[in-house]
Amino acid sequence: MTTLHQSVSIEPRRNLDCAIDIPGSKSCTARALVMAMLTHGQSTLHQTAECDDTDCMLAGMRGLGIPVEHKPETITVEGGELRPPSAPLHLGNSGTAVRFLTAACAALNGTAVLDGVQRMRERPIGDLVEALQHWGVEAEAPTGCPPVTVRSTGRFGGQTHIRGAASSQYLTGLLLAAPRATETAEIAVEGELVSKPYIDLTLAMMRERGVEPQRDGYQRFTIPEDQHYAPGAYTIEADASGASYFFAAAAIAGGRVRVNNLTTASHQGDAQFAHVLEAMGCALEEGDGWMAVTGGDVLRGIDADLNAMPDMAQTLAVTALFADSPTVIRNVGNLRIKECDRLSATATELRKLGAGVEEFEDGLRIIPWEWRAAAIDTYDDHRMAMSFAMAGLRIPGVTINNPACVSKTFPDFFERFAQLT
């Protein structure tokens, strides 16, 4: 491999046989940090994700007056009362940090402004702002996107609502903040909720910390005012999203790849991606705290609704290059407001590699064709870099431009990728 400064060339390889350790889950780390911040007392988080998104979250927490001690894969947080920041909180391109901390600022007695890079200023947040307003919080985002201003007295709660078709991170942010409400907090979901497993993950982690949300399916959530997060030590499991690339490597290159500290019993919805690969002809094994995927003799094209795991769309799209028939990915329209328009970007780069691609408003149809070498643009999107790296396992001459963008969630991805032997 070459340096990560400008581009990295992928070396083809086949018949893998390896075990990989994956960093801690970014999704779990982000949720755990917000809960620790809103806990009265000290919490220590082990095996945390070391990435840009974590750094953005920690910077926002420190800006809100929360003491944080950060060591490699261990973060100690002295939770308590939030303080008004002396300057706007700049949260980079971390949608997770912007959304979760915007909701958490309902517990602030004062004013906070949350902002980010130019792309963040193009990502909607109006639904969350409106939900906070119904909770009695003064919140505004004049453009419908960050910067967002939150003014609160620290007293909030009662009934609010959120559109189910909006990002599930809005609902998660509200749920995480709810135990600090000064009256029972109720959240109604309008319409069908997207990305349900992410809400399941949020609720499971809240219960682990002593809060028992009441729910009516995915339509209504209630958090009584007398519930509080418990301080303590918590361990973060391996990142299922990051693991997906290595499972896909087994499907694409053949052989077997095992990932430690992860099973399909995980509350992370993306752990179920291994079952998607099963449907394509791969074999799945599980043991005590590990799971492994073995590539099949033939990869089959499938028709997949990935609404429950939208971050897996790019991984599946690249895997589909090597199938024996077309693959359809459906119901992932919310990918258009991620770090980039992921549907359009994925279609563009797949065509460079020789695939036929039909792009829909909420999905893609990938038609395997004659492969060819290409330099892949990554659009400053970590998932573009990681998913398209897998194509180079079979296609000679694949180069990934701006590979350093993986620092957002998986800084040493290419070092671990090199262990695929």
Describe the fold and architecture.
By secondary structure, the chain is of the alpha/beta class. The protein folds into 2 domains: 7-22 and 238-417, UDP-n-acetylglucosamine1-carboxyvinyl-transferase, Chain (Alpha-beta prism); 26-220, UDP-n-acetylglucosamine1-carboxyvinyl-transferase, Chain. Helix content is 28%, strand content 25%. It has helices at residues 26-37, 52-63, 95-104, 126-134, 168-177, 196-208, 240-253, 273-279, 313-319, 342-352, 382-389, 413-417; strands at 7-9, 16-20, 41-46, 68-71, 74-79, 89-90, 109-115, 138-140, 148-153, 158-163, 185-190, 214-216, 220-223, 232-235, 255-260, 283-287, 290-294, 303-305, 327-330, 356-360, 363-367, 374-376, 398-401. Strand 8 (138-140) and strand 9 form a beta hairpin. Helix 2 (52-63) runs parallel beside helix 3 (95-104), helix 4 packs parallel to helix 5 and helix 5 packs parallel to helix 6.
